[in-house]
Amino acid sequence: MGHNQPTRNSTNASSTPLSEIPDKLYFRIGEVARLCEVPAYVLRFWESEFPQLKPNKGGTGQRLYRRRDVEMALRVKSLLKEEGYTIPGARQLLKAEFRLKEPQLSLLETGTSGTGVKQLRTLRRELQSIAAMLAKPVGKPSAAQAAKSPAVQAMRNPGRASSATRPKPPEIPFD
User: Which residue ranges make up each domain of the chain?
Assistant: First the structure.
């Protein structure tokens, strides 16, 4: 039998329905243990085995579970105790379920307006212009840039050269 297959067939639902979870913002580990009907150390172990089960920790280091964390703990319990999955099998199943729930971004809109296509074409033009800028050699400025450089301006107007572009007199070492 594979890791992701249940070890026994059972059609029982979770012993604590989702509707019986109190409407609270946070739950302490003892409350969650009571709702899931497992000891607190089991919840702490599940946290280390299932990355989807990550309660927040308060300033005192106490675990604070949200409703979705309680639901995830109940789901883990259901997979392990009632459906008979092994820990690696349950982890794999939850990972696959999580991937299916992630929203997928659509590049093109489904409407007939074609705005998605316009956005993609605009984005492509912008990327091509950026690529052209990056393709230019760094050491050789364009003719327009060279004409604006302070060194070229100083050669054209030697009387108006700034102190930054004037050559410095040679330093004479003192013996």
Answer: 25-101
DSSP the chain: --TTS-SS---PPPSS-GGGS---S-EEHHHHHHHHTS-HHHHHHHHHH-TT---EE-TTS-EEE-HHHHHHHHHHHIIIIIS---HHHHHHHHHHHHHHHSPPPPSS-SSSS-HHHHHHHHHHHHHHHHHHHHHS-SSS--HHHHHHSHHHHHHH-GGG--TTTSPPPPP----
pLDDT tens digits, 8-20: 544 444 456 665 8
Please, how many CA atoms are within 13 Å of residue 38, restricted to the half-sphere of its CB? 22
* Residues forming beta bridges with residue 54, ordered by sequence position: none
Largest distance between two CA atoms of the chain:
98
- Res. 108: pLDDT tops 90: no
Report d(CA 109, CA 85) in Å as an integer.
Answer: 40
pTM: 0.50
The CATH class given to the 25-101 domain equals mainly alpha
